Amino acid sequence: MNSYPSKLIENAVNEIAKLPGIGRKTALRLALHLLKSKEENTFSLTNALTDLRTQTRYCKQCHNISDEEICGICQSARRDRTLLCVVENIPDVMAIENTGQYFGQYHVLGGIISPMAGISPSDLHIDSLIERVQHNEIKEVILALSSTMEADTTSFYIQKKLKPLNVKISVIARGIPVGGELEYADEITLGRSIQGRISAE
Amino acid sequence: MNSYPSKLIENAVNEIAKLPGIGRKTALRLALHLLKSKEENTFSLTNALTDLRTQTRYCKQCHNISDEEICGICQSARRDRTLLCVVENIPDVMAIENTGQYFGQYHVLGGIISPMAGISPSDLHIDSLIERVQHNEIKEVILALSSTMEADTTSFYIQKKLKPLNVKISVIARGIPVGGELEYADEITLGRSIQGRISAE
């Protein structure tokens, strides 16, 4: 698709195709869809995106997206303020919230340590995590990071920093996914699930 | 994903997910991508979409998208003005242009006759097609519509309308796709490819 009938559509396709996972064919389909549907639809889309980008605020305490200075989870009296779950990013908070299994607070790092991508500990919200643990009555920090090399590095770095503060540190369980079959699990996962076995009583 | 951390992101996800083929998970990923990238990126996207929707014009002659009153293809002296290719929609023009095999002009119907979707001949650019054939020296009209029931109905309707004008009418060939294997072709396609066989000399 290299011959666009107008500069306007070419420009729109170029911009839409910059979004992750959207190619030029899909971008063209979306642009033509907007052209065919009511003008208001395009305006409510562009307004929502502009508002999102210009007005979004981040919770001063946990760095999650928030409508106010302190987010709903941090403000809530129902959440256990002695329990802190450390995650990489905002979708991780949403994923854990959707499990309905966690009632403590969060701390969003905003990424993981990655020398390859030029992300060092100072680029992440690690200092504010340490401060938060120092100045609040926090009994347990749960590290809920992915299971990759870089996430493990980040995990170890945070554990080292937290050690002097005498707080309980835990890591989410690695093992066979629920519904997963043993024979198809990779060896490392299976090994971890045996190491991390729990009492069946 | 039902617990969004802010109204702004919820609103943006709702709007993005209205686009065809984009679900709520993808919409969230796109919204978070915009939040992470520079403000300018969001602005150039929203500006491109607004410009597309408010400033796009259509060629008065062929109804293709155009930057000017008459599109580049209709204006071009290099295109054969006695040859007219009738297509359903704008992407079809682009697809045929990309083949590099066609050097005539186009006529975009803007859809096909579909009683189920409430689209009647008067909703399409059929009258302007007839007028165009009447008032210009057009020797051949090529019907390049899809191979569906509704497209066939549209094709027959146009043929009936064009008949009194004594213009040559042709239909693009139906048959085995290039690179396609005979044994996997459906019976109707194979039947059509035999009926429509051409001399191999």
Automatic annotation (TrEMBL), chains A, B:
<dbReference type="GO" id="GO:0003677">
    <property type="term" value="F:DNA binding"/>
</dbReference>
<dbReference type="GO" id="GO:0008270">
    <property type="term" value="F:zinc ion binding"/>
</dbReference>
<keyword id="KW-0863">Zinc-finger</keyword>
<keyword id="KW-0862">Zinc</keyword>
<dbReference type="InterPro" id="IPR023627">
    <property type="entry name" value="Rcmb_RecR"/>
</dbReference>
<dbReference type="Pfam" id="PF21175">
    <property type="entry name" value="RecR_C"/>
</dbReference>
<dbReference type="InterPro" id="IPR006171">
    <property type="entry name" value="TOPRIM_dom"/>
</dbReference>
<dbReference type="GO" id="GO:0006281">
    <property type="term" value="P:DNA repair"/>
</dbReference>
<dbReference type="GO" id="GO:0006310">
    <property type="term" value="P:DNA recombination"/>
</dbReference>
<dbReference type="InterPro" id="IPR000093">
    <property type="entry name" value="DNA_Rcmb_RecR"/>
</dbReference>
<keyword id="KW-0234">DNA repair</keyword>
<keyword id="KW-0227">DNA damage</keyword>
<dbReference type="InterPro" id="IPR034137">
    <property type="entry name" value="TOPRIM_RecR"/>
</dbReference>
<comment type="similarity">
    <text>Belongs to the RecR family.</text>
</comment>
<keyword id="KW-0233">DNA recombination</keyword>
<keyword id="KW-0479">Metal-binding</keyword>
<dbReference type="InterPro" id="IPR015967">
    <property type="entry name" value="Rcmb_RecR_Znf"/>
</dbReference>
<dbReference type="Pfam" id="PF02132">
    <property type="entry name" value="RecR_ZnF"/>
</dbReference>
<protein>
    <recommendedName>
        <fullName>Recombination protein RecR</fullName>
    </recommendedName>
</protein>
<dbReference type="Pfam" id="PF21176">
    <property type="entry name" value="RecR_HhH"/>
</dbReference>
<comment type="function">
    <text>May play a role in DNA repair. It seems to be involved in an RecBC-independent recombinational process of DNA repair. It may act with RecF and RecO.</text>
</comment>
<dbReference type="Pfam" id="PF13662">
    <property type="entry name" value="Toprim_4"/>
</dbReference>
<feature type="zinc finger region" description="C4-type">
    <location>
        <begin position="59"/>
        <end position="74"/>
    </location>
</feature>
<feature type="domain" description="Toprim">
    <location>
        <begin position="82"/>
        <end position="177"/>
    </location>
</feature>
